[in-house]
Design brief:
heterodimer; A: 254 residues; alpha+beta; eight-stranded antiparallel β-sheet; 7 helices; globular; B: 181 residues; mainly alpha; 10 helices
Chain lengths: 254, 181
């Protein structure tokens, strides 16, 4: 691939502004690991966009600040009253009329924080009790985790499947990988999850994942030694010769 | 409590992921103005904009663990979260502006598009720059960025091939980028 032309194509702007398709996004995220010049170009545009948008400021009203902080506090998030001094603020005159409001905020916040403090004490006790319970793991699984040469690969959900999570432990010596599903929608009778390794920018099928197995490692074999990333797609039962990228559920990279 | 005046991106993220109160206050103090400006490009009702800002900061707190610095800067993540929340809110509330329920033909003509948009939105920030682009670029950025349509949807709306949509979007973004400097 001509990476210079790729950089100039507009794909970076599309990616940073959140306008890529799933396929374009996956391709770019794999390529940026392989080409520092691409990664640098992405960061450069991010900084450029950030600088522009951090200069286009519109402040919410004092009432809005207060309302938002109240809402956040009511969810159990301990947030102090807002510090009005920002690194952007040039005109400080507006601070005067809000001084009184800030004082009110402080009182409100103190009230919520006191309640939270009491709630947190109870939660900490419960957590401490939970932590005292012994954690058991099948010995075979425990041995996998103990292997010092194993490479862990965190796999994150893609697009609408952002909440999906798996962890893969890859033994490069044996070509085996062990997958633990943390969260993955169960496949239907007619569909199966398929694991793909990305080798030289191309997907190579590793095999099917039996997602009925939970709380144990799922073993797969013949993982290509030169894989640089992995994706999991949902395919028709038995698998496909090429991945259906629109059905990408997970991706992970080294 | 004394608020730390500066953070590096890495220390701020690390502190947020530890649910550090001070870091969250810093985030709200320093980023709310930019995010509120983004939101106000999507909606022209103050009350709705306020609700979106609140929803964004709650989402940040709940989802900060999902933020992966290897995939982009914190602001890029906040921007995407803000844009997505804005579009979702608009769709949920079924706004009666120039959204999906408008006649699709309205989007085809640059002049009609301009008239429709200027009656219903705040021309501030990035959107002001978008409206300095030529009509065909302006229309495509409006459809993708501000309305969240997919490539296939935009192709149907503009009655042009998907390939042309993709090329036009990228060219429009390259032009838009020039105005960032």
């Amino acid at each position: 691939m001509d990476i210079e032309n790729y950089i100039l194509s507009g794909i970076i702007e599309q990616y940073v502004m959140g306008l890529c398709t799933v396929e374009e996004k996956i391709e770019l995220e794999i390529l940026r690991q392989q080409h520092n010049v691409l990664n640098d170009a992405i960061v450069s545009f991010e900084l450029s966009m950030e600088k522009k948008m951090m200069n286009d400021i519109l402040w919410p009203s004092e009432e809005t600040d207060e309302k938002i902080l109240r809402a956040i506090n009511s969810l159990g998030i301990p947030v102090l009253p807002i510090n009005k001094t920002t690194h952007k603020a040039a005109n400080m005159g507006w601070l005067k009329p809000v001084a009184a409001a800030a004082s009110i905020l402080l009182v409100i916040s103190a009230f919520f924080n006191y309640n939270l403090f009491n709630k947190n004490k109870v939660q900490q006790k419960q957590l401490a009790l939970a932590n005292e319970k012994p954690v058991s793991l099948p010995s075979a699984d425990y041995n996998i985790l103990k292997n010092p040469t194993i490479t862990p690969v965190a796999m994150y959900g893609v697009g609408y499947h952002a909440i999906c999570r798996c962890t893969m432990f890859w033994d490069k010596k044996t070509g085996k990988a062990y997958i633990m599903i943390h969260h993955l929608v169960r496949s239907s009778d007619k569909k199966d999850y398929q694991l793909w390794a990305m080798v030289n920018d191309k997907p190579v099928s590793v095999g099917m994942i039996n997602d009925a197995i939970r709380d144990r490692f799922i073993e797969v074999s013949n993982v290509p030694a030169n894989a640089t990333a992995f994706i999991v797609t949902l395919e028709n039962t038995g698998g496909s010769p090429s991945p259906t990228l629109q059905e990408t559920y997970l991706q992970g990279r080294l | 409590m004394k608020i730390q005046s500066t953070y590096t991106e890495a220390t701020l993220v690390a502190a947020l992921q530890k649910r550090d109160n001070e870091a969250y206050q810093y985030l709200y103090t320093n980023y709310r103005g930019a995010l509120f400006a983004i939101i106000n490009q999507f909606v022209n009702e103050t009350e709705t904009a306020n609700d979106i800002l609140q929803e964004v900061f709650i989402a940040v707190w709940k989802n900060i663990d999902k933020y992966d610095p290897a995939k982009g800067r914190l602001f890029t993540w906040l921007h995407t979260l803000t844009r997505n929340t804005s579009i979702n809110t608009i769709r949920t509330k079924n706004f009666k502006s120039f959204q999906k329920n408008e006649q699709l033909s309205d989007y085809v003509s640059g002049i009609e598009l301009k008239n429709t948009i200027q009656q219903n939105i705040n021309l501030i920030g990035l959107r002001k720059q978008v409206h300095q682009l030529r009509d065909e670029y302006k229309a495509i950025v409006e459809l993708f960025y501000y309305n969240g349509f997919t490539q296939d949807e935009v192709a149907k709306i503009l009655e042009i091939p998907v390939g042309t949509v993709k090329t036009r979007l990228r060219n429009a973004l390259i032009e838009l980028r020039k105005q960032f400097k």
